[in-house]
Amino acid sequence: MNEEITIINSNTRNERIKNFFVNNRKNLIIVFSIILVVIIGYISMLEMKERAKIKLGNQFNITTLNFDKEDKQITIDQLTKLINENDVTYSPLALYFIIDNNLIDNNNEINILFDVLIKKTNLSEEIKNLIIYKKALFNSDFSTENDLLQILNPIINSESIWKSHSLYLIAEYFYSKNEKQKAKEFFNQIILLPSVNNDIKVKSQKRLNRDFGE
């Protein structure tokens, strides 16, 4: 008797499943079609991004390999275009190449390109902080105290791994201006950080011991 009930229940369940698919065939086809289109679209998007990445990489390599100091404007134009592509890999590399090879003399133009990376490129938080630090480093030879602090404020007010580097840059900036009390304050901030680059901490302590008697 129990076996018969089990068979009946099983047959009933199978019949219900069959009826469900028959009655909802059109809706199921639509749903599966949408899912298939989404999957194909996602895979296509990934392939397009990969092809675009390879293309940018080739452009960067060709541009830097063909760099000619006697005709640097072509390199400047091509690298500037790369920067404005907002690519997380090749946009920063393009700017570093411009700076390392002194291709652009106008500091304002360089700062504009830094801001393209910082404000418009979808970088990870610490990579963005690194570029902010590099911008400050670039500006430290000619920038005012307020401008330098304004550039570095996002890092100084965070727990970034670049915080100790930023504080050290400002401390050295004040030291070079013979504003030793301000320099001392920033060196001390580095020493007191709970998480600090060890090399930066050692250099700060040496500076305090040698120049401030601490």
Question: Helices, strands, pairings?
Answer:
Blueprint: H1 2-23, H2 25-65, H3 72-83, H4 90-100, H5 107-120, H6 125-139, H7 145-156, H8 163-176, H9 180-192, H10 198-212
Helix pairs in contact: 2-3, 2-4, 3-4, 4-5, 5-6, 6-7, 7-8, 8-9, 9-10
Number of helices: 10
- Low-confidence parts: none
Assembly classification: single chain
Q: Class by helix and strand content?
A: mainly alpha
Number of strands: 0
The largest pleated sheet is described as: none
The percent range for helix content is: over 70%
Q: Could you give the distance between the termini?
A: 95 Å
Radius of gyration: 30 Å
Number of domains: 2
Report the order of strands and helices: HHHHHHHHHH
Strand % is: under 5%
Mean pLDDT: 86
Instruction: Tell me the overall shape.
Output: elongated
Give a concise summary.
It contains ten helices and no strands. The mean pLDDT is 86.
What this model shows, in words?
By secondary structure, this protein is an all-alpha fold. It has 2 domains: 35-123, no CATH class; 135-214. Helix content is 79%, strand content 0%. The chain has 10 helices and no strands. Helix 2 runs parallel beside helix 4 (90-100) and helix 4 (90-100) packs antiparallel against helix 5 (107-120). The protein is elongated, with a radius of gyration of 30 Å. The model has no long low-confidence stretch (mean pLDDT 86).
